[in-house]
Amino acid sequence: MVSFEGSSYSKGVGLKVAAMWLWHDLPPGTVLYSRGRGQWGAISKPAPWVPYESEVQFEPEVRRMAVLAADEVDRYRSWIRSFRDCAESCDFSDDLIDMRDAAIAWGLARDERRAHSALDRYEALARRITFWAAREKSEQEGRQRAPQPWELEAEQRDQERATRARELRARLSECSGLVELVGGWISGNRTALGLPPFDLLTAVAA
Known about the structure:
Layout: E1 2-5, E2 12-17, E3 50-51, H1 55-79, H2 83-90, H3 96-108, H4 112-128, H5 131-140, H6 149-171, H7 175-192, H8 200-205
Antiparallel strand pairs: 1-2, 2-3
Helix pairs in contact: 2-3, 3-4, 4-6
């Protein structure tokens, strides 16, 4: 994902390049960079902020940025050559989303054991940060109160996480089922971003 980003503080543009997995079942068009680990894990900023002073000054700087962005995309493509490459980086992250990415990637790499292991860690961490854990602590301390709107939203996210994890785990043992589930998420995101269709089954079989 290449992003030319402006600022509300001053005229100009910055450049950000990072991996983004299109299997996230998020609202269409949502941008979610992977953190991961390893040489491509961090978000890359290959060019400094370029302030806008005039068209004559700004245009060549932005063109130089575009060339740097293309070079950085080529570097990412050389590092991320397979689902296993993705899984190996995400699997060692302590980020909740990266753990789920690792489970999906291991599943698509046809390594069911490691996919279940990553999903186990995802579910364990999700339980530790859930709304329910906070509510149980309040109840243990004898505090009774009506839940706040943000708590209800957090509860809904917790339930959605649990549902997605169960759905994903149920598909890990059958490659075609996993491809159908994840392929649907990918198709939705590619459509929202204006990208051409992608045959996930062919990529998995390669």
